[in-house]
Design brief:
The chain is of the alpha+beta class. Helices cover 28% and strands 26% of the residues. A hairpin with a 2-residue loop joins strand 4 and strand 5 (178-183).
Amino acid sequence: MVKKDYYEILGVPRDADLAAIKKAYRDIAIKYHPDRNPGDAKAEEFFKEASEAYQVLSDSDKRRTYDRFGHEGLRGAGYQGFSGFEDIFSSMGSIFEEIFGFSMGGRRRNGPARGSDLRYDLELKFEEAAFGVEKRIEVPRYANCLECHGTGIAKGKQPVVCPACQGSGQIRRTQGFFSISTPCGTCGGAGRIIKDPCLKCKGEGRIIEKIHVQVRIPPGVETGSRLRVPGKGEEGEKGGPPGDLYVFVQILLHEIFSREGNDVIIGINISIIEATLGTEVEIPTLDGMHKLTIPHGTQHGKIIKIKGKGIPHIRGYGRGDQLVEVKVRVPTNLTKRQEELLREFASIEGKKIKKPETILDKIKNFAAGDG
């Protein structure tokens, strides 16, 4: 499904400031909040769209990415949007607090919850990215405490009913005509309070662990490529499924090769004699040394293509080429004989080369009255 433009959803121009974006979202949130439109699927969908638009446009980094690359750019940066109302209310509680003066949660989150996705930045050598490699990486993540099985409660103990909300997990608050149930601040919407926390996780129900993940890098990846490893994100809460791990690739610079798409770029230096007469040189490629024929009369800056010696296509068909840029060296220190030969060559070509004046020549000319 094609996503709508965030600016159109909020009804603001693309150069709108944060205050205008916040006001537009506040008006939409009040009108289309699900508690005011029970059973209205269209209102709920628009509320979700507006919440996602506000979350992106009120964040300077996300907004910059969206303005340059659109929705695809946000996905490439790991932004997933909201999966549902529970996600909106848990992620944007502080935003609602700022806009309305109190949270617009109105929903409890006591059931299973999917674990968060994780990001891992992986550096690869040029050749590893070209031909693919397997890497074993260490990833820190939150996992459920095995001592209390994720409950946060000490063995043999039970939670007690929250005295503030009497176990409902909700506190009803009214501001003018607008009345909303908000999560209880005492128990966090759980309706229960842990008085005897698990000693291992200190009542959190989760601990930080390090897992080792084997990641297969396919041939042809580029800097910025993103690989998804399902189920290797943080563990879900209360039996919820785990999140995913996203591996972002960064390719290290190579001392010889550079890359343009699937083509490998390399520069070589040859003498003016080799360029004029032609020669054969050995050059490095990703597959080892290769004999390259330099045609006679090769000009400085000429690009010679070696087909099929580039980067494999990431989708598995064929390879790019290696492009060799020829750089012709001009000698700076000639012997007298070499200079004579070059002048003789110029004479054959019908060109008269005037010898540049030295400082001594200029002094002699000046003394003779020629200056």
